[in-house]
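Example 3.2
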Amino acid sequence: MLDTDIVIIGDLLHLFNEEFDYGLSARGNLQVPVQGGVQLVHKGHLDRAEQWLSLVLDLWDAKAKLNSRGEYGFTGDQHIYADAMVGMGGDRTPIMNKASAKGTSHMPIDKEGHGTFDIMLIPADRYNRNPGGAGAALAKERVAVLHYKGGRKDGMYKVWNPMRSGGLKAVYKLKSIA
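Structure, written as tokens:
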């Protein structure tokens, strides 16, 4: 599941060679260690993914009721996923520590009455990258997903148009991708 402000420039299929129940991108931010712009569901684990999302949505609903406007804000999904992983108001350091810039990591989440969920964390700097810098860095760092969130959406065309006309080689030649 991908946000609509994403441009895919690399392979994601190899991520599904691992077994997991649900996948989220993780980053080195203690307040918001996971991001929901890229979410993975393993074909063989659809039932477990549905159970996980049901728990997440129940938590979101409970938190929304605490808010007088009935919402949990623009970044609500990010906080809800983290809270679901470590418990409401829990220490988010374990999520950050599991996140690796070099590859995926797995975090078992035990939910009483539901068993253990295997949450795969994928490095956001490669699979949910905030765009910036030049195109050459994308090739060097093997970036697969650019996420033009917030006010960056107009920047998508800086990558999308050259990719449509000249492929990835044209993207890697860009002086700026933001």
